[in-house]
Amino acid sequence: MKKIAAIDIGLKRIGVALCLSSTIVSPQEAILRKNRDQAARDVDIFLQEWSIELLVVGLPKNGSSSEEMERRIKHFVGLLKFDGEIAYQDEYGSSIEAKEMMQGVVRQRRDGRIDSMAAKVILERYLDAQKETSWAD
User: Fold this and answer.
1) Closest CA to 18 of 29, 3, 5
2) What's the predicted TM-score (pTM) here?
3) Which residues are registered as beta bridge partners of 8?
4) How many domains does the chain have?
5) pLDDT, tens digit (0-9, with 9 covering 90-100), for 43-87
6) Integer Cα distance of 51 and 71 in angstroms
7) Hey, CA dihedral for 64, 100, 111, 27, is it positive or negative?
8) Is residue 120 within 8 Å of residue 17, measured between CB atoms?
9) What angle (nearest 5°) sits at the alpha carbon of residue 64, between those of residues 61 and 69?
10) pLDDT, tens only, 90-131
11) In contact, 60 and 31? CB cutoff 8 Å
């Protein structure tokens, strides 16, 4: 089983989630984003610390600003020194789903927990899609 991480790239925070076994996905502490170079360095450090082999990146597929966000996200991913495999996963609605999951748990909304929960949702969607593909083979 590959060590997989997912990131949900936002303008202020980057949500992060890990999957080190085949089924358990756990949100991690979000990375605060002061500027994109610092954020890319922090993501690289995280990926190295966990020996990540596959990075799943949330990408908006629907919405009015999705093309602009896709360009920004792919630019950010280009800044990473990560040499493992990169996969993109539709993140549509992941933040809304994360907020619903966290209702009653999070009081302080700017601490990044919702961002990392969104990364968890993205990673679970990716893993589910992989399972469906492997069943089809």
Assistant:
1) 5
2) 0.87
3) 15
4) 1
5) 999 999 999 999 999 998 876 677 888 899 999 999 999 999 999
6) 27
7) negative
8) yes
9) 60
10) 887 777 777 777 776 655 556 778 889 899 999 999 999 888
11) no
Instruction: Tokens 């990131």: give the residue.
Output: 7
- Domain span at 9: 4-136
User: At residue 33, what are phi and psi to the nearest 5 degrees?
Assistant: -115, 105
Q: Rounded CA gap, 124 and 17, in Å?
A: 10
3-state secondary structure of 28: strand
Measured between its terminal Cα atoms, the distance across the chain in Å is 18
Dihedral Cα 12, 40, 70, 22, nearest 10 deg = -100
* CATH code of residue 126: 3.30.420.140
What does the alpha-carbon distance between residue 74 and residue 61 come to, in Å, rounded to a whole number? 13
| Distance separating alpha carbons of residues 68 and 48, to the nearest angstrom | 29
The token pair at 73 is 């996200």
